[in-house]
Structures are given as C-alpha cells and as structure tokens.
Design a protein that fits this description.
alpha+beta; two-stranded antiparallel ribbon; binds zinc ion; two-stranded antiparallel sheet; single chain; 1 helix; flat; about 80 residues
C-alpha cells in the first residue's frame, strides 16, 4: 500500500482590491486580459526554435492586464460593465 504524502499547503492568503466593487478580496480571482490581434494583422506563428516570450513579459500593445475580482459573480458583473 502506498503511503499518502501529507503535504501541508502553507499558502498565504492574497488580498487584492476587487476590480469591480473595490472591496478587498481574499484570494481573488485573477482575470488576464490578453489583447487580441487586430484583424488583418499577421498572426505570430509559434516556433519551437524562436525566442520564448512569456505572456507577462509582453510589452506595449500586447501587454496583458490582470484584474482581480472577489468571485466569479463579481467578475461577470465587472466584465459586463466593461462591455467585453
Ligand atoms: Zn468584487
């Protein structure tokens, strides 16, 4: 019989301001807004040999925006406000 490893997860609660209601949310839902490539623009082709770019390292127009929300409902509400 295999012994189950009991790993204690010591995760610090993250507190972020909610993007929608402005309340402090503990362990918020993070929504990453990734800008889409405008129509007609060449879509960058992923190549294994090419330089790897992390999403978060993208700059300028391709920069992602992280939004924190207290929960799914709040996220849906905030997103609908933005008209996305
Ligand atoms: Zn909220």
């Amino acid at each position: 019989m295999r012994k189950l490893k009991m790993k204690k997860k010591q995760t610090k609660p993250i507190r972020r301001k909610c993007h929608n209601c402005g309340k402090m949310a503990t362990n918020p839902l993070v929504y990453h807004l990734v800008p889409s490539i405008p129509y007609g623009e060449p879509i960058p082709v992923y190549s294994k040999s090419g330089p790897k770019t992390k999403r978060v390292d993208l700059k300028g127009d391709m920069k992602i925006t992280a939004q924190n929300y207290c929960d799914r409902e709040c996220m849906a509400e905030g997103r609908s406000k933005l008209g996305v």
